[in-house]
Design a protein that fits this description.
This protein is an alpha/beta fold. The chain has a seven-stranded mixed beta sheet with strand order 15-18-19-14-13-21-22, sandwiched between helices. Helix 2 packs antiparallel against helix 4, helix 3 packs across helix 4 and helix 9 packs across helix 10. The protein is about 40% helix and about 20% strand.
Length: about 500
């Protein structure tokens, strides 16, 4: 097969331009390649857009906003349901595209698109009952109503592109906004393919997708005076830059940022094998490239040795392999850069004196020698170590032994992030008092990654601002306007 040819099973195009005003545009001559991170295969060429393309997209979104903002809740709901149906019908192909484009297993990318479908349907339903409040006042009445903000500039990361696109598009569109979205340069293909469905369902200009580099397309988007609201998912470091850009123009900004989540095991668990299995999944799902990952694993002293024996034996059985091979549980990282970063953190852990229990190296997968397949890695560590404090974004777990409850809680919260957390216990009191004390936006009891449509998702501290995934997200994408009515004119007194 010619390395520049489309992959027959996915229908990928040879090249993609920006999606502006309902169609793909071949603007400019600069491109960057989409590369299969496992095999090194060239998948497609993507337009490297910048300020000119962002400007065209924002103007298209501004023009579309005039009519789209006046559509009824029911009209928007109907189109979001249609988009969900279209993605569902195309799910196997889109999931394969993501597996090839980002290196995660086909099993996982299929789940991603199911989550995305759920988001489109959730907000299609939520907008129907999106009402605010009003009450009688002396001599009149007041109402409060929601109105769309305008053009929303949205930037999403590479780890779960299907979910991230849905997280951003669904609430913004439901609330009556138009969108200019920039996908990550490492994971643009499924979002650009999604545009083919969007073109058939939504009016031109309502959704615009402009690929490119963060310092070019991303910076132009956050700085554009026509963008009325910014939404970003990614690292805390870039989140600060986006937040500063929003502050410069005094526009609202919502941020979903990094995490270094504690996952706590109490000694009273009923089924240790099931807990070990779920904790292993919590730390390595998405090849560990998840802001939610439970990578700080607090295990109680009474069950510590038995837990570690089971965890080590279990990771020895984990199948590391091609993203598209059946049975693969752990696949390759997104890029050489990310692979080398993770390996460098493993070296940091060794240098800090952490005990490497298992893993710690790069696996070689026949036919996929290009990829960075990192063995599931477990350190016995102290919470103060860098590997337990900094977001590694790879399948590396720091296990921290605990005995004193208050000390454990203090260490669980002793990190600059506060996105997610996990608890394993059969004791209701342990579960609820610990959930209350954890400084995290999500607390999962006895099942990590237990994401359900409608549950608020977001973080404390440096993990972000605002909540996604729930009805309250619609508030992030709308203005609240008060209208106060008096039945009669007041008596004259000022000029009397």
């Amino acid at each position: 097969m010619n390395k520049h040819a489309a992959v027959p099973s996915t229908g990928l195009e040879r090249s993609y331009g920006a999606f502006i005003n309902g169609e793909f545009r071949s603007v400019g001559s600069s491109t960057f390649p989409a590369i299969n991170p496992a095999t090194g295969e060239h998948l497609s060429d993507i337009a490297r857009c910048g300020a000119a393309e962002i400007d065209l997209a924002v103007k298209a979104a501004q023009a579309a906003f005039k009519s789209w903002s006046k559509t009824t809740y029911e009209q928007r709901s109907q189109l979001l349901f249609k988009l969900a149906d279209a993605v569902e019908a195309d799910l196997p192909r889109l999931a394969m595209i993501d597996a090839l484009d980002i290196g995660r297993t086909l099993f996982e990318t299929t789940l991603d698109h199911r989550f995305a479908i759920g988001q489109y349907r959730f907000f299609a339903a939520a907008i129907i009952s999106f009402e605010d409040f009003g009450k009688p006042i002396p001599g009149g009445y007041f109402i409060a109503r929601r109105q769309p903000i305008g053009v929303c500039g949205q930037i999403i990361p590479w780890n779960v592109p299907a979910i991230m696109a849905a997280f951003k598009l669904a609430p913004a569109l439901a609330a009556g906004n138009t969108v200019v979205l920039k996908p990550d340069e490492n994971a643009s293909l499924s979002t650009l393919e999604l545009c083919k469905h969007i073109a058939k369902i939504f009016p031109p200009g309502v959704v615009n997708v402009v690929p490119g580099m963060g310092e070019e397309a991303g910076a132009s988007l956050t700085a554009h005076r026509g963008v009325a609201k910014l939404a970003f998912t990614g690292s805390s470091e870039v989140g600060r830059i986006v937040s500063a850009a929003g502050a410069q123009r005094l526009v609202p900004v919502s941020l979903e940022l990094g995490g270094k989540s504690p996952n706590i095991v109490f000694p009273d668990v009923d089924n240790l094998d099931a807990v070990v299995d779920n904790a292993a999944f919590a730390g390595t799902y998405c090849n560990g490239q998840s802001c939610l990952a439970g990578t700080r694993l607090f295990v109680h002293d009474d069950i510590y040795n038995a837990f570690m024996d089971k965890l080590t034996a279990g990771f020895a059985r984990v199948k590391i392999g091609s993203p598209i091979e059946d049975g693969t549980k752990l696949s390759c990282l997104i890029s050489k850069t990310q692979g080398e970063k993770v390996l460098s953190y493993i070296d940091v852990g060794k240098g800090e004196g952490a005990n490497l229990v298992t893993g710690g190296g790069r696996a070689s997968i026949p036919g996929n020698e290009h990829g960075y397949f990192i063995q599931p890695t477990v350190f016995e560590a102290k919470n103060s170590m860098r590997i337990a404090q900094e977001e590694i974004f790879g399948p590396v777990i720091s296990v921290i032994r605990w005995k004193d409850y208050d000390t454990m809680i203090e260490e669980a919260n002793d990190v600059r992030y506060g996105l997610a957390s996990g608890i394993y216990t059969s004791n209701l009191s342990n579960a609820m008092k610990t959930a209350e004390r954890l400084e995290a936006g999500s607390v999962w009891i006895n099942q990590y990654f237990n994401l359900v449509d409608g549950t608020p998702f977001g973080g404390y501290k440096e993990s972000g601002i605002g909540r996604e995934y729930c009805r309250d997200t619609l508030n992030l994408y709308s203005h609240l306007k008060s209208v106060t009515m008096a039945y009669d004119l007041p008596p004259q007194w000022y000029l009397a």
